[in-house]
Structure formats: C-alpha cells, structure tokens
Design a protein that fits this description.
71 residues; mainly beta; three-stranded antiparallel beta sheet; two-stranded antiparallel ribbon; 5 strands; 62% strand; elongated
Length: 71
C-alpha cells in the first residue's frame, strides 16, 4: 500500500489570551495522537496536554488560569 504523509497545521488564538483561555486549532489529514506543550521563556515545559485528534479541523481549549501572566 501507499503510505500517506502526516500533515498537520496549528493556530493558537487569541493572542494575548483572553479570560484565561486559549484555543489551539489543529488541522490534521488523519486521526492521530498529539502532545501540546506550552513553554516558558526559558524553554521549560510549563503545561503539557495529550489529545487524540481526528482528520479535519479540531479545536483544543486550554485553561491557563494557573499560569503566570506574560508567558
């Protein structure tokens, strides 16, 4: 069989965050697990979310109320 290359595009909005919520739109060409990592200015992982996305448009909502302002 012919293997299909994995293709994924992401958009994060709003920027800056509003009401302690951000949304990550993930457009994928197939079902797949994804790991989203929010990084601090120093490159450390400050939040990690694992999700299963489906082919097509997906939106993951992330609550950031527990993170310091300005990240």
């Amino acid at each position: 069989g012919v293997e299909q290359a994995v293709k994924m595009e992401m958009k994060v909005f709003p920027n800056p965050a509003h009401d302690n919520i951000i949304h990550v739109q993930i457009d994928a060409n197939q079902n797949m697990p994804v790991t989203l990592q929010l990084l601090g200015a120093d490159g450390r992982i400050i939040k990690e979310i694992e999700k299963e996305v489906s082919g097509g448009a997906n939106v993951v909502t992330i609550n950031i109320f527990d993170l310091p302002t300005g990240l």
